[in-house]
């Protein structure tokens, strides 16, 4: 999995007044969990652009001004309900020898027979939770829709999972091909035409 670096500064004061002062200065208060103790730090809003405002999944290298560096993943983010401004971010420290769970996007490949026949591809899950060692975390889950005919569904059990596990029930649907209105109308008209008596023939 690709990684991005966030440079920040460790913070000593964690109260409401200090947090508000950070936000007013254009900084985002953050907490890193998963180590011996929580690490409180802050970073500029722009530092999170490629982490938050993207459909892709990343691991993170957090570099603090005191020379400390941590490998982590985004755990939780709080945004303002009106302005969408980032208010707070929680990270979780990752370790090379411990599996972690992270949400990654689904990448569709192939051409579905059902779609080519006029069906609509519906995405039930655009992201899936996977579990793996940090070095085995995938950038995405690859879903091949080639075998899908009209009315078929693609389940999580049908996608390759080398070196990682999908953390969803076996009956979880990734996507499906539904009959479109145009295809349904064409089928109905064809059925009517088949039932109607041929012109020129006596009853």
Q: Total domains, how many? A: 2
Largest sheet, order of strands side by side?
1-3-2-6-5-4
CATH topology of the largest domain: Ribosomal Protein L25, Chain P
The top-level CATH class of the largest domain is: Mainly Beta
Beta strands, count: 13
- The percentage helix is 10-25%
Please tell me the overall pLDDT. 89
Calculate Rg over CA atoms.
25 Å
The 3D shape can be described as elongated
What's the order of the H and E elements?
Answer: EHEEHEEEEHEEEEEEH
Measured between the Cα atoms of the first and last residue, the distance is: 70 Å
Q: Strand content of the residues, in percent?
A: 35-45%
Overall CATH architecture of the largest domain: Beta Barrel
- The fourth-level CATH homologous superfamily of the largest domain is Ribosomal Protein L25, Chain P
How many H/I helical runs? 4
Uncertain stretches: none
Largest sheet: 6 strands, mixed, barrel
Subunit structure: Part of the 50S ribosomal subunit; part of the 5S rRNA/L5/L18/L25 subcomplex. Contacts the 5S rRNA. Binds to the 5S rRNA independently of L5 and L18.
InterPro entries: Rbsml_bL25/Gln-tRNA_synth_N, Ribosomal_bL25/Gln-tRNA_synth, Ribosomal_bL25_b-dom, Ribosomal_bL25_C, Ribosomal_bL25_long, Ribosomal_L25_dom, Ribosomal_uL5_bac-type
Keywords: Ribonucleoprotein, Ribosomal protein, RNA-binding, rRNA-binding
Organism: Flavobacterium gilvum
Describe this structure in words.
The protein has 203 residues and is α+β, with helices and mostly antiparallel strands. The protein has two domains: 3-94, Ribosomal Protein L25, Chain P (Beta Barrel); 101-182, Ribosomal protein L25, C-terminal domain (RNA Polymerase Alpha Subunit, Chain A, domain 2), CATH 2.170.120. Helix content is 16%, strand content 40%. It has four helices and 13 strands. Strands 1-3-2-6-5-4 form a six-stranded mixed beta barrel. Strand 4 (59-64) and strand 5 form a beta hairpin. The longest helix has 15 residues, at 181-195. The chain is elongated and about 85 Å long. The model has no long low-confidence stretch (mean pLDDT 89). Part of the 50S ribosomal subunit; part of the 5S rRNA/L5/L18/L25 subcomplex. Contacts the 5S rRNA. Binds to the 5S rRNA independently of L5 and L18. Keywords: Ribonucleoprotein, Ribosomal protein, RNA-binding, rRNA-binding. Belongs to the bacterial ribosomal protein bL25 family. CTC subfamily.
